[in-house]
Write a structure and sequence with these properties.
The complex is a heterodimer of chains A (400) and B (557). Chain A is an alpha/beta fold and 400 residues long. In chain A, 32% of the residues lie in helices and 20% in strands. Chain A is built from ten helices and 18 strands. In chain A, the strands form seven sheets. A five-stranded parallel beta sheet of chain A has the order 9-16-10-11-12. A three-stranded antiparallel beta sheet of chain A has the order 13-14-15, with no helix packed on it. In chain A, strands 1-6 form a two-stranded antiparallel ribbon. With 557 residues, chain B is α/β, with parallel strands linked by helices. Chain B folds into four domains: 130 residues, Rossmann fold (3-Layer(aba) Sandwich), CATH 3.40.50; 182 residues, FAD/NAD(P)-binding domain; 137 residues, 3-Layer(bba) Sandwich (FAD/NAD(P)-binding domain), CATH 3.50.50; 60 residues, Alpha-Beta Plaits (2-Layer Sandwich). In chain B, the strands form nine sheets. Chain B has a five-stranded parallel beta sheet. Chain B has a five-stranded parallel beta sheet with strand order 14-21-15-16-17. Chain B has a four-stranded parallel beta sheet with strand order 2-1-3-4, sandwiched between helices. In chain B, helix 2 packs across helix 3 and helix 5 runs antiparallel to helix 15. Classes of the chains: A alpha/beta (400), B alpha/beta (557). At the A-B interface, helix 8 and helix 10 of A face helix 2, helix 10 and helix 12 of B.
């Protein structure tokens, strides 16, 4: 305590931070498209990228394994050619930084539970079953659908149509009027198929009826016993935003308990029910199937009618659990702090920021699920404990 | 010769928050036609590092002497843009912000044309005002490095110790004769199982032994004057009054438990509150064989809409205590939603079930009925009434606002919410600060909180309070009242009487009685300037001339 020596590895970003102005010409010209993790895989980005538009520092990074030059041994270097600031540095290496500090605050956050391990919810089988985080990206005005609730199945269909149209264009060029090679017939057949798909596309509409399923991977003895704290409120929020965006949207939130415990939360929940077409349904979903319109069908026992019922929705949103970050265990070992039985960093309810090692403090979801106000408050609290530790050390030094 | 006014206008798309609903291209083109505007730029995010760099570059290259950003709210982004201007060598107060998002694109999502026209009006008004802006200098003031913590419960004691351990002098003021607050009434703490009174005694001793903490029990506050860095407190302890100065104040005044008079035949004997149950658990006088607990009594209803956050866990904690003492006792909890949020709470809830505590959900439209020897409740799953035997009914009632909250709110000029709990400055960004500078909050005064949360918030509030204390100097916005025409002032004192912040005083000068502004205390609300019939006072950056031009610009299309 009071005197930690820390070695930090700063990963190479292959862009000189001091020179990059964040103008984005590199990403504009980069030829490599990569699945955009920030947009929950729903969109694409380039191999040289910024994680999200307002990111700090506003500096680009090369995704080395995806980059033609760095990861795939091909000749490229387009980004270096277009960069006026001369900021691209393919030779950059990881750097080791040594720090000498009096206290350490762990604020490494959490990860979201992967629902594909719950077979009955069909997350990896049914296009229109999405996670809450994916749904957030769909709702986001700067997300892949500009805030419109396009159904993932429709997005995939449109992508297929686009690919076929490209193929059609290619084939059309190869058709020779006199040749009897079947190309003309093949092209015509493709055109018929494309036209049929276009007709179908014209019938698509954005999602109007949405189901939210709570406690996906939480309060479930097969996965995590704990409650993830914030998901009830984000489902209410998402249902409210979806309705604000399109007043025809109605939502059903399926939950065991609707946990609205913060200031104004209960009032918000009630307002959602009255003004945003939200229905709160008590029950645990048994299974989700898919109908021919690609709509997920939710099966559950209605506790009011005491019968098993099923209902089709345009989209299902899974409120996935807040789980310890993948690196938490390794970090805990490195810092020599203990984890709790769930894998979060262990704290004491009467000394809530303290880890098991003096001088190391933890705040936010690294110590367990909590919402934003609580995380922000805890960040200040951890800072208080860290400052107190350092002040005590300084005082001890000063008084010899 | 007057300097040529050169205005730059930056129109922000805010991703699609603005560009998705307004025609920003048109706004940018329109801005170019406005008087004195020499440069216009549209940005995807003006607040991104790119946007900021573009403002800086334009100030230099185009010799801008006024900058306008038409984007979101000054509440969150004005400091950033002002700082940007300053870095580019332009006085920060030659910046004007036009909000075309919160009250424009967001509220006119379905009406692109009308919304765009309104944004044009707003930009035109901003441009008109910007032309008259004057440079201002920030005001500096020193900070008294001492703190006062109000309330000697666990939150107050924790906050006081956190500050004292940093080396700051703290006065801890408690209304009751002893420290400990609500802890003194509780039996055990969950989930630690620690005896509440033992914990209270330990913490009290630590506080009392701390040489930096002065404890004033049986003390009430009479008056608090002043402002961040310089609060003057008048308090009465055991009939004796004293005055002292502090730089910051932390409010940790707690809450009280609602007495459920009129609910479920509450009598304090056979039908009691959870707090009364804790009294019996603590005194080991509980002998009930069948206990029925009813949740949300006086909460989540028309008169009191909020959920009190902690009562489910209090019920579960006490149910476990009863079961541990007497496993044969029947404990049934009638609830609406079990609020066992998080890791520890959910684990405790499961533990209670393992011990045989029975949880039955009730519908508020069909509330349980307390009858002699039984409670009748409609069971949703069975679809019929259930008779539950009882020899004790425990009502879980919400925490409600502290009895002094309204008075304290007036005394310190801090906000309370509709339920009379103290209200933080921003729900997400400033959960522990009041909107009034230099005053912070934590614990049940803010909203019902568990022990873990109260302690955590107290440390956080101390951390926030330590920022001005350790800086020693306060920098205050110069958008304050200003005696622009001393001749005109007659020293009538009308403004002094009306100022809600105590930021004005009448002083004797060579020219007679004149008003004097205390800039650090002034919030720039403008009440004084609006009332002064001599027009002697004016608010910097909001002068009559500036606002007048804005109105004129609105009326002339």
């Amino acid at each position: 305590m009071g005197d930690f020596k820390v070695k930090v590895r700063k990963k190479a970003r292959y862009v000189n931070e001091d020179l990059c102005t964040g103008c984005g010409s590199c990403a504009e010209k980069c030829p490599t498209m990569v699945v955009d993790v920030y947009n929950a895989g729903l969109g694409k980005r380039k191999a040289i990228f910024k994680y999200f538009p307002q990111g700090i520092p506003s500096v680009f990074t090369i995704d080395a394994p995806e980059c033609r030059q760095l990861g795939q041994g091909k000749k490229c270097g387009v980004c270096a050619k277009v960069c006026q600031a001369k900021a691209i540095d393919f030779e950059q290496k990881d750097k080791e930084v040594e720090l000498n500090v009096g206290a350490i605050v762990v604020a490494t956050g959490y990860e979201v539970f992967d629902p594909s391990v719950i077979p009955e919810y069909g997350y990896d089988r049914i296009d229109n079953v999405v996670t809450a985080l994916e749904f957030e990206r769909l709702l986001s005005a700067s997300g892949p659908t500009a805030g419109h609730l396009d159904r993932p199945s429709d997005i995939a269909f449109e992508k297929d149509l686009e690919d076929l149209e490209k193929e059609h264009k290619k084939l059309s060029r190869q058709v020779k009027p006199d040749a009897n090679d079947g190309m003309a017939e093949k092209t015509a057949a493709l055109e018929v198929r494309i036209n049929a798909m276009k007709d179908k596309k014209a019938t698509f509409q954005t999602a109007k009826k949405i189901a939210f399923i709570q406690c996906v991977g939480s309060r479930d003895f097969r996965f995590n016993r704990f409650c993830s704290s914030y998901c009830c409120m984000h489902s209410v929020k998402e249902a409210m935003i979806a309705n604000e965006h399109d007043n025809d949207v109605s939502s059903s939130i399926f939950c065991m308990d609707l946990r609205a415990v913060g200031r104004g939360f209960e009032e918000y929940k009630v307002r959602g029910g009255k003004q945003a077409n939200i229905q709160y349904v008590r029950g645990r979903i048994a299974e989700i199937t898919e109908d021919e319109a690609k709509s997920p069908v939710v099966w559950y026992e209605s506790t009011t009618s005491r019968q098993v019922v099923h209902e089709a929705f345009d989209m299902v949103v899974l409120a996935t659990a807040c789980i310890p970050a993948a690196g938490a265990a390794k970090l805990a070992e490195l810092l020599d702090v203990k984890l709790d039985s769930n894998g979060f960093i262990k704290t004491d309810s009467l000394a809530p920021l303290n880890t098991t090692r003096p001088g190391i403090f933890v705040c936010g979801c690294a110590q367990g699920p909590m919402d934003i106000p609580e995380s922000v408050a805890q960040a200040s609290s951890a800072a208080a404990r860290a400052a107190e530790t350092v002040a005590q050390v300084q005082l001890a030094v000063a008084t010899g | 010769m007057a300097e040529e006014i050169r205005i730059g206008v930056f129109v922000c798309d805010c991703g699609s928050n603005i560009a998705g609903y307004l025609n920003v291209k048109e706004l940018a083109e329109y801005s170019k036609t406005l008087p004195n505007v020499v440069f216009v730029k549209e940005n995807l995010y003006t607040c991104s590092e790119n946007g900021i760099n573009e403002i800086k570059a334009a100030i230099k290259a185009e010799k801008l002497n006024r900058a306008i950003v038409a984007s979101c709210t000054p509440r969150t982004h004005e400091p950033l843009f002002r700082g940007t201007c300053e870095e580019a060598g332009l006085n920060a107060y030659l910046f004007e912000m036009v909000n075309i998002r919160d009250q424009c694109s967001w509220v006119h999502m379905q009406e692109k044309e009308g919304g765009t026209a309104k944004a044009k009006d707003l930009i035109r008004m901003g441009v008109a005002k910007a032309a008259l802006l004057q440079p201002q200098e920030t005001i500096q003031s020193d900070v008294d490095p001492r703190a006062m913590v109000v309330g000697g419960g666990i939150a107050g004691m924790t906050a006081a110790m956190a500050l004292a351990n940093r080396g700051f002098e703290v006065t801890l003021v408690e209304k009751a004769p002893e420290l400990g607050g609500m802890l003194l009434r509780l039996d055990k703490l969950a989930p630690s199982g620690v005896d509440a009174s033992v914990f209270a005694a330990q913490q009290t001793e630590l506080v009392q032994k701390n040489p930096k903490i002065r404890v004033l029990t049986s003390t009430t506050l009479n008056e608090v004057q002043g402002y961040i860095g310089h609060f003057k407190v008048s308090a009465t302890s055991d009939g004796k009054s004293e005055e002292f100065g502090v730089g910051v104040i932390i409010l940790a005044t707690g809450a009280q438990v609602l007495k459920p008079i009129g609910f479920y035949n509450y009598d304090g004997q056979k039908v009691i509150t959870q707090l009364e149950l804790e009294d019996r658990l603590k005194a080991k006088t509980l002998d009930a064989k069948n206990v029925v607990m009813i949740q949300c009594v006086g909460a989540r209803m028309e008169e009191r809409k909020y959920c009190s956050r902690i009562c489910c866990m209090v019920a579960i904690k006490n149910a476990i205590a009863i079961k541990e003492k007497n496993p044969a006792a029947g404990v049934r909890i009638l609830y609406r939603d079990i609020q066992a949020y998080g890791v520890e709470n959910e684990a405790l809830y499961q533990h209670a079930k393992e011990l045989g505590v029975i949880f039955i959900k009730y519908d508020p439209a069909k509330p349980p009925k307390v009858e002699s020897g039984k409670v009748v409740v409609y069971h949703d799953l069975l679809g019929r009434d259930l008779d539950l035997p009882q020899d004790l009914v425990v009502l879980s009632t919400p925490l409600i606002y502290g009895e002094d909250n309204e008075a304290v709110s007036r005394m310190l000029r801090v906000s309370i919410d509709a339920n009379k709990f103290f209200l933080e400055g921003h729900v997400k960004l400033k959960p522990l600060d009041f909107a009034t500078d230099g005053i912070y909050l934590c614990g049940n005064a803010h909203y019902p909180a568990s022990m873990r949360e109260a302690i955590s918030q107290a440390l956080g509030a101390a951390s926030r309070a330590s920022i001005p204390l350790s800086k020693g100097v306060m920098t205050v916005e110069p958008i304050v009242s200003n005696l622009v025409d001393e001749e005109a002032c007659r020293g009538c004192g009308l403004c002094v009487a009306l100022c809600p912040y105590g930021a004005l005083e009448v002083v004797r000068t060579e020219k007679g009685r004149k008003v004097r502004v205390i800039p650090v205390a002034c919030k720039g609300c403008g009440v004084c300037a609006a009332t002064c019939y001599q027009h002697a006072l004016s608010i910097n950056s909001y002068s009559d001339a500036q606002v007048g031009e804005q109105i004129k610009a609105f009326l002339t299309v």
